[in-house]
Write a structure and sequence with these properties.
The complex is a heterodimer of chains A (89) and B (1027). Chain A is mainly beta. Chain A has one domain (2-24, 35-81): Folate-binding superfamily (Folate-binding fold, 2-Layer Sandwich), CATH 3.30.2270.10. Chain A has one helix and six strands. Chain A has one helix at residues 34-42; strands spanning 2-5, 9-12, 17-21, 50-56, 64-70, 76-81. Chain A has a four-stranded antiparallel beta sheet with strand order 3-4-5-6, with no helix packed on it. A two-stranded antiparallel sheet of chain A has the order 1-2. In chain A, strand 4 (50-56) and strand 5 (64-70) form a beta hairpin. The two termini of chain A are 28 Å apart. The model of chain A has no long low-confidence stretch (mean pLDDT 92). Chain B has 1027 residues and is of the alpha+beta class. Among the domains of chain B are: 162-285 and 442-520, FAD/NAD(P)-binding domain (3-Layer(bba) Sandwich), CATH 3.50.50; 695-884, Probable tRNA modification gtpase trme, domain 1 (Gyrase A, domain 2, 2-Layer Sandwich), CATH 3.30.1360.120; 931-1027, Elongation Factor Tu (Ef-tu), domain 3 (Beta Barrel), CATH 2.40.30.110. In chain B, strands 9, 10, 13, 14, 15, 16 and 30 form a seven-stranded mixed beta sheet that branches. In chain B, strands 44-45-46-47-43-37-48 form a seven-stranded mixed beta sheet, sandwiched between helices. Chain B has a six-stranded antiparallel beta sheet with strand order 50-53-54-49-52-51, covered by helices on one side. Chain B is elongated and about 115 Å long. Classes of the chains: A mainly beta (89), B alpha+beta (1027). At the A-B interface, helix 1 of A face helix 21 and helix 25 of B. The complex binds zinc ion. Zinc ion binds next to loops of chain A.
Chain lengths: 89, 1027
């Protein structure tokens, strides 16, 4: 599997660390209720097909990416930067 | 006469280069270019192996990757390589080859008890024999059965061979350099695509050298040679001979094994090929027909017989009977006869055959026996004859279906030289030393099956072809079921053009004309003239004597009877049949057996073959040495060894180094003759008495900078950091999102907007990833940057009552007394002239400092500390003594921070700030994380005995220990207390101080009385570190 890192270009998936489901909505830090955090930490849909995932280019530019890919075929459609260098950051 | 070397011929051998190798100790003559199998055949060697379960003698069966019998062991000692396919491995001068599964040799195997045990070895014997009252006997029988039923043994010594890994990239990967593959590579290459042409054999052409055909107006061999020259001349084309593509993975990634050969060189290379498009031109392999005794040495695939004669000048035998059901095999027989091999008879169930095929053979003396099948092979160590029976009219008509077959009537003849009087019931007996068999051809669909849908049944070839692709591949040629060379080669050319176009290149495809110089043949070979026949059902050949075994899977010794038994017992699904009988589960992946097994099952179920389904192929398609997957990453290179900048200083000080996680670290600095115990207790005692220095460079160090650095740390640590004064450090506890303890360390405030955060050695990389994730995904609004500076600093802990005095001699830029440099103070200064960061922190409980200097300055400063402190008795202390000192102080480390403890469990709940939100807070507040019955941190101390980490805490003595109530995580002998002490996680431990328990260690031995105490064994009030 290749991931098109916006900084480094097409790189082997072995250079990246998987960092979890990017569709899980993180509650705001101030949220004190237990339920939304339980949902965020433990509940996953594990869809077959197209999905958004966090991957970090740990053995490259170290940027965190959101990768859109097909979990069934492993086809990667796009990867975009997250954080201060991402869109709107 | 079994096999022998023909007087001439052999396209792959060089008769001028002769050498010998040994087989089971006996010399075997060979020519350069011979495979082990071809040399053994040419030398007249019939038995090359013993079978898996029954130890029956076996000979060479094929000439390719499908070989089920001729697996041998090559080499001895450390280089012993088991299960080598003799049909594909080239022989080499002096090579030591030995038979497997036999003692002392395959020729005289005293382990052939399998035959007598055979009733116990039928289908599913593992499942049946060892249940019920016999279950316990498994442990007695297992070693004997494993030894009797097995494959070669691997060497137990380290493999001295070198293996490599490499990557390659292609627009179009063509797998197989037969006619279809060559044509595909040509069209794709001419279009300008980056093409890789991978071929398992040493040279191109596939089975073209077994054909008599003209391609594009010239002989097939010339065409293949010219195609190869053209391909080699293209810069965008890479030819990869001796490279077997064995795996088709997601995203167009294929795995291949390159056999590099040559001693002292790389043995093989693992290729990871990224291909935008693939053309699978993997060809087809001949399949056998099952009959009684079909495993006897001398029974061989017809095309293999031809391959040995043509490629290696090796006759498969001196007196050959061909048993076949298709025209292709007749052509093979004709070419064999031309090469000088005596064809005694041809047995074919069909009623008529083309005159053009039959006449030349009959003219050379072959007896043509139509409407008959071979029912049994006679002989044990070598085929001695064949029992041939007529085919029932009804059975024939049923098998033939509605196939309307034009062609000339061939004469039926029973006048062969060896003609024996007809056996009772119309059976014929014919003498022979070899039976060549051909039941048609199976497309090689392993890769297509890995990357595609279920295979599709193709009636005219009675075989499965690749199913719908799920990746970007096109199957072409015989692999796609093309029945003739002309169709195959044009399919290849078209596939190459399609693949190149799909990869974005403009491709042109010209039709290639193929002529086969046998008049009238092309008419029938549209369907190969095939009469589907997979098995000749056993016939009681002689009264009172059961028929010999008929094998479906030669490699796993699965018989036709096993399959019928499995069906009878309810294993009627293809996948169930496979697992119950192990049919097709050997390393040949059932290439020659799977279809026959399915055909027999279909017969039992009285349904068409495709209706019983097929099994899925999985990678690897061929056996792959584990070493090739490891490549160079083994032994010391399996993981990078990390060394601290002070590594050589430790070696110079006589340190005993040890692997600790990723790092090589000094365990102890033993004096001459000193034991581990004596050394670490001395070092620990010395720190409490005088001053010691220790290497702490391995701690993770992260610089956190930016206007929001303080706010960021407030969010990621459980306790507060924004109110930390510049020039001070603080202990910090980090939780995971789920509220459990993640890591601990200290963070030093170097400036308003700059901190240095330290992590444990073990979690350094994880903490960095965690913080980077939070900064990018959770708190992108914070202006903060994170930089790992772990490798930029050498860190030295200077600890003990004389630590201050020692440092004062070297430090400039800060006072060292309690006012100028208080406990938890951080100072930027110089040490021995080197810029340094100093923090007054203690892991040991003594007055101590951590000194960070640039990594390159580290060794100098280490040496300087030892020199300038000689009169203060400064001495280095290692990892063991560091452990002793921290356990005496009750500081938690890796064994306690095991991912399942909460802050409350460690007695650190006060660090969970109530004034601010932080990562993990909401879930850390779940009541279950502070339940009183949880495993909680305690100290344990033994009166005068010793115990070990990992021991469980129980209430009772050894005779009646009772349930585990917790376990001991860290243990040391405490020189300060003169006793063995430990940290432990004990159920409800916080309320159980003073209780007497036992440290139970039943596996390693030991049951020791311990007392539950506070984990702070030494100086609980911390007076020493403020001193
Ligand atoms: Zn990158």
């Amino acid at each position: 599997m290749l991931i098109p890192c916006p900084v480094c270009g097409q790189r082997d998936a072995g250079e990246f660390f998987y960092r979890g489901d990017a569709t899980a909505a993180r509650p705001p830090l101030e949220e004190e209720a237990e339920r939304p955090w339980v949902e965020y930490v433990y509940a996953r849909h594990n869809p077959r097909g197209e999905h958004l995932e966090f991957w970090q280019h740990a053995h490259g530019c170290r940027q965190l990416l959101v990768v859109r890919r097909n979990t069934e075929t492993h086809e990667v459609f796009e990867a975009r930067l997250v954080g201060p260098f991402g869109e709107g950051g | 006469m079994p096999g022998f070397r023909l007087a001439s011929g052999g396209t792959r051998i060089d008769r001028s280069a002769r050498f010998t190798f040994t087989f089971d100790g006996a010399p075997v003559e060979a020519f350069a270019g011979d495979t082990i199998a071809s040399a053994l055949i040419a030398s007249g060697r019939s038995i090359v192996a013993r079978s898996f379960k029954y130890h029956r003698p076996r000979g060479v069966f094929s000439a390719g990757a499908e070989e089920p019998n001729a697996l041998v062991t090559v080499g001895s000692g450390a280089v012993r390589e088991p299960n080598v396919n003799a049909a594909t491995r080239l022989a080499a001068p002096g090579m030591e080859v030995s038979g497997q599964n036999a003692f002392p040799s395959v020729e005289r195997d005293i382990g052939a008890v399998g035959e007598k045990l055979s009733p116990f070895l039928a289908a599913g014997f593992y499942y049946k024999t060892f249940i019920g009252p016999l279950k316990r006997s498994w442990m007695w029988y297992e070693p004997a059965i494993r030894r009797a039923a097995g494959m070669g043994r691997a060497s137990l010594e380290p493999d001295p061979a070198r293996y490599e890994k490499a990557s390659a990239f292609a627009d179009v990967l063509v797998v197989g350099a037969g006619p279809a593959g060559l044509a595909a590579a040509l069209t794709a290459g001419r279009a300008g695509a980056r093409v890789i042409l991978a071929e398992a054999a040493p040279g191109p052409g596939g089975a073209l050298d077994l054909e008599e055909a003209d391609i594009d107006g010239r002989p097939a061999g010339e065409w293949a040679a010219a195609a190869t020259v053209e391909l080699a001349g293209m810069e965008n084309v890479t030819l990869m001979p001796r490279t077997h593509v064995w795996g088709y993975y997601d995203g167009g990634v294929l795995a291949a094994l390159e056999d590099c050969g040559g001693e002292g060189e790389t043995r093989c290379r693992h290729w990871r090929i990224e291909a935008r498009q693939a053309v699978l031109a993997t060809g087809a392999i001949e399949r056998p027909i099952v009959f009684a005794g079909n495993d006897r040495p001398g029974v061989m695939l017809a095309s293999a017989g031809l391959a040995y004669a043509r490629r290696y000048g090796a006759a498969p035998g001196g007196n050959v009977i061909l048993f076949c059901n298709n025209d292709e095999a007749w052509r093979s027989a004709g070419l064999l006869a031309e090469a000088g091999v005596k064809i005694a008879a041809i047995v074919d169930p069909r009623t008529e055959i083309l005159d053009a095929l039959a006449r030349p053979l009959a003219e050379r003396g072959a007896e043509i026996i139509l409407s008959h099948v071979v029912a049994a092979a006679r002989g044990v160590k070598r085929v001695e004859g064949a029992t041939i029976v007529p085919v029932g009219e009804a059975a024939l008509a049923e098998a033939a279906g509605n196939i309307d077959r034009p062609g000339a009537q061939a004469q039926e003849s029973e006048q062969g030289e060896d003609a024996a009087p007809p056996a009772p019931g119309g059976a014929l007996e014919r003498a022979c030393d070899t039976i060549l068999v051909s039941g048609g051809f199976n497309p090689v669909i392993n890769l297509a099956s890995q990357a595609g849908g279920p295979p599709v049944w193709r009636e005219e070839i009675a075989a499965f072809v690749p199913g719908e692709p799920r990746q970007a591949f096109i199957a072409a040629g015989a692999a796609a079921g093309a029945p003739t060379l002309e169709i195959a080669i044009n399919q290849g050319a078209e596939a190459g053009a399609l693949a190149a176009s799909a990869a974005g290149f403009e491709a042109r495809n010209e039709e290639l004309a193929v002529k086969i110089p046998v008049e009238g043949l092309r008419v029938t070979t549209e369907d190969g003239g095939l009469l589907p026949l997979f098995e000749v059902e056993p016939q009681g050949a002689k009264p009172g004597k059961a028929a010999d075994k008929a094998f479906v899977d030669l490699q796993h010794d699965v018989t036709a009877a096993d399959i019928r038994l499995a069906h009878q017992e309810g294993f009627a699904d293809a996948e169930h049949l496979k697992r119950y009988t192990t049919l097709g589960m050997a390393n040949d992946q059932g290439r020659t057996s799977a279809l026959a097994g399915l055909a027999i099952l279909a017969g039992e179920r009285e349904m068409p073959l495709p209706a019983v389904g097929s099994t899925r192929f999985r990678p690897p398609a061929i056996p792959v040495p584990l070493g090739t997957l490891a490549g160079r990453e083994r032994g010391r290179h399996a993981a990078p060894v990390r060394r601290s900048p002070l590594h050589h200083a430790h070696l110079a000080a006589g340190a005993q180094m040890m692997e600790a996680g990723l790092w090589m670290r000094p365990r102890i600095y033993p004096k001459r003759g000193e034991t581990l115990f004596a050394a670490y207790t001395r070092e620990a005692r010395h720190v409490r008495r005088a001053v010691g220095i220790a290497d702490v460079s391995t701690l993770g160090k992260i610089e956190v900078a930016g206007p929001d650095a303080a706010a960021f740390l407030d969010r990621v640590y459980a306790n507060n950091f924004s109110n930390l004064a510049v020039g001070k450090a603080r202990y910090g506890l980090m939780l995971r999102e789920d509220g459990f303890v993640f890591d601990d360390g200290t963070a030093w405030r170097l400036a308003e907007d700059r901190y240095l955060a330290t992590t444990t050695t073990a979690k350094a990389a994880e903490v960095m990833l965690h913080l980077e994730f939070l900064a990018a995904a959770a708190f992108p609004e914070l202006k903060v940057s994170l930089t790992s500076v772990s490798d930029q600093y050498a860190g030295i802990a200077v600890a003990g009552p004389k630590a201050r005095e020692l440092l004062a001699r070297l430090v400039e830029g800060t006072g060292m007394d309690n006012d100028a440099f208080p406990f938890m103070g951080v100072r930027e200064a110089t040490v021995g002239g080197a810029p340094a960061l100093l923090a007054r922190l203690s892991f040991s409980g003594e007055n101590a400092y951590e000194v960070y200097v640039g990594a390159d300055h580290g060794p100098f400063i280490w040496k300087l500390l030892l020199e300038k402190g000689a009169d203060l008795e400064v001495a280095p202390y290692g990892l063991e003594a560091m452990g002793t000192l921290r356990i005496e102080k009750g500081h938690v480390a890796g064994p306690e921070l095991n991912g399942r403890v909460s802050a409350h469990d460690l007695g650190m709940e006060k660090l969970l700030s109530t004034k601010k939100p932080f990562v993990g807070k909401p879930l850390a507040q779940r009541p279950a994380l502070s339940e009183p019955g949880r495993l909680q941190l305690v100290g344990v101390i033994a009166a005068d005995e010793a115990f070990r980490a990992g021991a469980h805490l129980v209430a009772g003595p050894a005779e009646q220990p009772g349930p585990s109530e917790g376990h001991i995580t860290s243990v040391t002998f405490s020189p300060a207390l003169g006793k063995t002490i430990g940290l432990a996680l004990l159920k409800g431990g916080r309320e159980r101080r003073g209780e007497s328990l036992y440290a139970a260690d039943p596996i390693r031995g030991g049951h020791c009385r311990v007392e539950v105490v506070s984990p702070h064994f030494v100086d609980p009030k911390g007076e020493r570190l403020h001193g």
